[in-house]
Prior knowledge:
Elements: E1 9-12, H1 16-27, E2 32-36, E3 47-50, E4 53-56, H2 65-74, H3 79-82, E5 85-87, E6 90-95, E7 101-105, H4 108-119, H5 121-146, H6 153-160, H7 165-169, H8 177-182, H9 188-195, H10 214-220, E8 224-226, H11 231-243, E9 247-250, E10 254-260, E11 263-269, E12 274-276, E13 279-282, H12 286-290, E14 313-324, E15 331-334, H13 339-347, E16 357-361, E17 383-391, H14 402-418, E18 422-433, H15 435-441, H16 459-462, E19 473-475, H17 486-506
Parallel strand pairs: 1-2, 1-13, 2-9, 6-15, 13-19
Antiparallel strand pairs: 3-4, 5-8, 6-7, 10-11, 11-12, 14-17, 14-18, 15-16, 16-17
Amino acid sequence: MAGADAERVAIIGGGIGGLAAAALLAARGVPVTLLERQPAVGGKLRKVDAAGHPVEAGPTVFTMAQVFREIFAAAGADLDSEVRLRRADVLARHAWPDGSTLDLHADAARTIDAIGRFAGAEAARAYAGFAAEARRIHDTLAEAFLWRPRTNPLGLTFRLGLRRLPELQATRPYETMWNALGGHFRDPRLRQLFARYATYCGADPFRAPATLMLIAHVETSGVWLVDGGLSRVAEALAAVAARHGAAIRTGAEVAEILVAAGRACGVRLASGEVVSARAVIANCDPSAIGSGRLGSAAQRAVRQVPPGARSLSSLTLMACGVASGFDLQHHNVFFSADYAGEFRDIRAGRLPVRPTVYLCAQDRGPTGARMGEADGAFDAAAERVQIIVNAPATGDTGRPDEREIRQCEDAIWTCLQRSGLCFQPLPGAIVRVTPSDYEQLFPSTGGALYGRASHGWAASFLRPGSASRIPGLYLAGGACHPGPGVPMAAASGRLASEAVLRDLASTRAFVPAAMPGGMSTRSPTTAPTG
């Protein structure tokens, strides 16, 4: 390699992890080429067209805003100048088949009062105890594990120190989330509500460790609405990277990671073009590498996730239409009458017969009111929605088939109608994405949206870290450490960029400017998950 190629970093994939790495490296003067096979960057943060209406088709919950503020600042930019964020007053509205509803609020006192009116004073006290435990778990793990390079159980114990070993044990890694919640809540509706946080990282709450209760603390610390949708965050990161000279190429599919003398040395595109590089960051699901999809030379870099260890997929509908009969908030959850049965179906490889339905009403503002045209609404009556139900990651097996999908869609509309919501889509304004479609978008995953499932105490330690088994090949994305979710994927990009800078400095191929080391995000009183 000569010239810029001797220092160049090639990034495979323009998801949020790859974009964060690109912005941070380019801001330090590293030549960066980001290669994205889709027509636009963003990865899972994307829009689809529903009969002429752009609808967000990826993650919709934006938390841990401080993570992004730090990344943008480290890249010489200001998040709040690049995108408009508005803090949600209502975190989500929840509805059950018995007609009951409950809102969780940004204001903790309002949430406690709402739960008291919903299920009684004892339930309100139980929630306060649950919230305190969720915060303790978060605070134990945030600095020692989430924002630092991947480690093993012994390494985590060393980071915390022996004096804090009781705190580590109190994260309850050996209990299931479902059982732990039973110790907090007698009301089955509340147990169901807070168990749902396991699905935020693609886990089955009946198999996930109670440690994941920390997600509840992350959300109560702040949920923001992004004008234009979360895909705007990806666009803004790409713009920051480009301002620092990063070359961002869309429609550029990587066919192979090149390895020479035991070290990653670039990539070959599907077109045959070779992009030489000093280091490669793979912002894709690691299973794509482990399965050999990116070449046999790189296959040993990471293990493929076995099908039985995959996280959840989903059946997702993006639509534009007229909603009536139920007072929607931006985030809404309509619970199944048989929560255990829903996950039994998924574990058996079937779409749930009676699914829980999440609905994001994308044109609803922080208080649930319809936003005006200046705020992104496009029609006085119709509004854009994204509807999600959990599904097994069987997209590479030909399942679910069309019959099963249609039955599940019927169950979705039945669930919504049971709560009084009538949704009339505009002609042709529904786009469906199945596990098979997600497999096409994110190869070698079966449609799993979160990498390895967070099942069992060891799952978090089994996610790959920034460094792979091949020198010069680094990993980023929600399937890597520190885990799923938009903020975590961004953090993985930062960890990967720091690893690359250390490598470049140690080999004297490049001497970077000073870069802040590690995430400094504290217990999110100003920010938190996606």
